[in-house]
Amino acid sequence: MANCPVCLENFNRPTTCIPCGHMFCYECISNWRHTHFNSNVCPQCRCSIKQLQRVYLGDTDNLVLTQSQSSLTSFSSEKFQWFRQQFDNLYFNINRFKEWRQRLNVDDEIFHDDNNDDDDEPSHTFLEDIQHFTERIRVLWRELQISQKCMILFGVFLLSSLIIQDSQSSTGFLHGLILPILDIVVNFFTSLISTILFIFIRPLLCLWNILSELLIAVFEIVYSLFYAIFYAVWTILLIPYAICCAIFNWFTNICYYFVETVIALLRLGIVCILVGMSYLFLVDLNQREEALNILLRKYQTIRSALPTKHQLRSHANNFQNLFVAFVHSLSQKVTEQNQFQPMPTVDN
């Protein structure tokens, strides 16, 4: 039996490269392809590897080559075909993205690590990692037997159906365990975030309140200062007006006092004239003299009260009232005497 060209030992799970047909151990060729990312070629002839095929050795040491493609065509599962088609499309898109990158000639510093200064190590890109990862999945999938693939698909289908059924049940694993735990975790993180926000925002709010109060205090101080200055200037400007108003009020009061005095004197004169004329009709001279003495005393009392305005008014009113009462009493006496004494007759 031949040895593996890579490990130089007997074949362990022999695998052949297509289309060149060189045989290697499955682990050796897999490690080769995974290690040399940019060398998806045969280790011996440097021919591009399209796919890997398992080789089964019989008792007669004849190489029986089983084509995976023919076995796959015999498998009529639609889900498997869809799964394989998705991987093929992904592989095609990755190759197309790689071609576009090469055409655009993008700078390698965007896709490589800046700290990787070793030129001997191969450079990696994200698209190439995805490409080799999918290629590895394809290889592992092709290495599986049909029964294993069916079991995997059946397990995926069964797991999906169980997950769907559990999500629809109110007492299932999702609603009974996962969602309560997630609710607790969400509440914990919500409380934690709220506490952190409160810790950071509360001092800011206090600072904002302090600044606003300081601004309001400064504004009130400035406003009060300007108002005081304005009020003082306005008061100073109103002093001449106040003086003029005081002089005018004083002059009007003097005029009013003079007019009141004149009117009171006129009233007094008129009353005196009327009283004097009424005395002419009195017969008794003693009563006339008594009335004149009373009138003189009242007149002297009124004259002594004239220096002040209020006193003048009060005394004038009192005098007027007394004088009216006196005239009224005098008229009553005159009427009484006229009733008891006959009227004098004129001799012819």
What does this structure look like?
This is RING-type domain-containing protein. GO terms for molecular function: zinc ion binding. It comes from Lottia gigantea. The chain is mainly alpha-helical. The protein folds into 3 domains: 1-66, Herpes Virus-1, CATH 3.30.40.10; 72-112 and 123-168; 247-340. Helices cover 71% and strands 5% of the residues. It contains 9 helices and 4 strands, in the order E-E-H-E-E-H-H-H-H-H-H-H-H. The protein has helices at residues 26-35, 68-74, 78-104, 108-111, 126-143, 146-168, 173-279, 285-304, 309-340; strands at residues 14-18, 23-25, 51-57, 63-65. A hairpin with a 4-residue loop joins strand 1 and strand 2 (23-25). The model is unreliable at 59-76, 109-115, 117-123 and 339-348 (pLDDT under 50).
In short:
Helices cover 71% and strands 5% of the residues. By secondary structure, the protein is mainly alpha-helical. GO terms for molecular function: zinc ion binding.
Rg, Cα atoms, Å: 67 Å
How large a portion of the residues is in β-strands, by DSSP E?
Answer: 5-15%
Largest sheet: 4 strands, antiparallel
Poorly predicted runs of 5 or more residues: 59-76, 109-115, 117-123, 339-348
Element-level helix/strand string? EEHEEHHHHHHHH
| Ends distance | 205 Å
Write out key terms for the chains shown.
mainly alpha; 348 residues; Herpes Virus-1; 4-stranded antiparallel beta sheet; single chain; 3 domains; disordered C terminus; 9 helices; rod-shaped
